[in-house]
Design a protein that fits this description.
- The protein is α+β, with helices and mostly antiparallel strands.
- Among the domains are: about 110 residues, HSP40/DNAj peptide-binding domain, CATH 2.60.260.20; about 70 residues, Sandwich (HSP40/DNAj peptide-binding domain), CATH 2.60.260.20; about 40 residues, no CATH class.
- Helix 2 packs antiparallel against helix 3 and helix 8 packs across helix 9.
- The protein is rod-shaped, with a radius of gyration of 40 Å.
């Protein structure tokens, strides 16, 4: 039986770190992806097996005591018999779980999902629109088309596991010597090796790029809404399918309108005289200019509703409403002529302050008259 210490070129009292460094150095020299010869493959197999034994404290202790990693004596926990973990692993392997009976793993694997943010204007949330994003993502390599190999070359069957992706080793247990399956250390379970990896993607089958993506924004989205784009995420290794892309919407604040569910809201300011007499205000909405009628005697806090001028419904037909909050302003700086007219108006209306009761509509003029008298 080969001397594992000699295989790795270390002394019998070498530390775990020294054993690891020696293994890594030899593995780089003899790995089949670097040295595709049959001799290198066999040497790599011996190096991997030696490291497997010497890097495990229990296996190394048994090997040092008996010269054989399987040991020579019976017992449940030592003397060369594998423990319950080995037995469990073996029976699980026989059942077809990872480690046995499943065949080689495919190199092609699904890509990762991705989450990005899209900032949009309120208009796009109301009517829908488009947004262009800059993605940092992975795409299938254009040189090898996801095969991981240089053009004109192809993967070769692993000579260590004969394309099975798994190797077997004898394990002694209380049931006797049984064969335990483990991932092939040469092909890493793929069943094939790549003698000539693609120089563009380093044998990954995909490369990272910066690229623009234009997406459609449906009407009715709001802050935090996530748009799911199936198959628009990162390309998978080995030519595998793309993952999914999730776009989280952020609606920028608008200077004029605010969002209230499916509705929009805004404020118009009306002078006191106009509110008393009634007027019409032209309001610039997202649908263009709209006339808002202010009825005579309109008070601050009154809400005019413009039907169907709100936000498009994300899951349903139609749109919400536009609610217009009316604010009536009282003049704070009047001329002598304006003051005289206001006093005359207050006198004609007979307005006065009513104590101990909510102010009536005429109370405003009464207070104004009193203030003017005190000037």
């Amino acid at each position: 039986m080969a001397d594992h210490y000699a295989t790795l070129g270390v002394s019998r009292d070498a530390s775990a770190e020294e054993i690891k460094r020696a293994y890594r150095k030899l593995a780089r020299q003899h790995h089949p992806d670097v040295n595709p010869s049959e001799e290198a493959a066999e040497e790599f197999k011996r190096i991997s097996h030696a490291y497997e034994v010497l890097s495990d404290e229990d296996k190394r202790r048994v090997y040092d005591q008996t010269g054989n990693e399987n040991g020579t004596a019976g017992g449940f926990g030592g003397g060369g018999f594998g423990g319950f973990a080995d037995i469990f692993e073996t029976f699980m392997n026989a059942a077809g779980t990872p480690g046995g009976g499943r065949g080689p793993m495919p190199r092609a694997r699904r890509g990762q999902d991705a989450l990005v943010t899209a900032g949009i204007e309120l208009r796009d949330a109301v009517f829908g629109g488009e947004a262009t994003l800059q993605l940092d993502t992975a795409v299938t390599c254009g040189r090898c088309s996801g095969t991981c190999c240089e053009p004109g070359t192809h993967p070769e069957t692993c000579s260590t596991c004969q394309g099975q992706g798994m190797t077997q080793r004898p394990v002694r247990s209380m049931l006797g010597t049984i064969m335990a399956a483990e991932t092939c250390p040469v092909c890493r379970g793929f069943g094939t090796v790549i003698p000539h990896p693609c120089t563009e993607c380093s044998g990954q089958g995909r490369v990272r790029v910066q690229q623009p993506l234009t997406i459609r924004i449906p009407a009715g989205v709001d802050d935090g809404t996530r748009i799911h784009l199936a198959g628009r995420g990162e390309a998978g290794p080995g030519g595998g399918p793309n993952g999914d892309l999730y776009v989280e919407v952020q609606v920028r604040p608008d200077e004029v309108f605010r969002r209230e569910g499916d509705h929009l809201a805004t404020t118009v300011t009306v002078p006191m005289a106009a509110a008393a007499l009634g007027t019409s205000v032209t309001l610039e909405t997202l649908d263009g200019p709209q006339e808002v009628d202010i009825e005579p005697g309109t008070q601050s806090g009154h809400v005019e509703t413009l039907r169907g001028l709100g936000v498009g419904r994300l899951r349903g037909a139609g749109r919400g409403d536009l609610k217009v909050d009316v604010v009536v302003t009282t003049p704070t700086d009047v001329t002598d002529e304006q003051r005289a007219l206001l006093e005359q108006l207050a006198g004609l209306r007979g307005e006065e302050v009513v104590h101990g009761a909510p102010p009536q509509s005429k109370g405003m003029f009464a207070r104004l008259r009193e203030n003017l008298k005190n000037l």
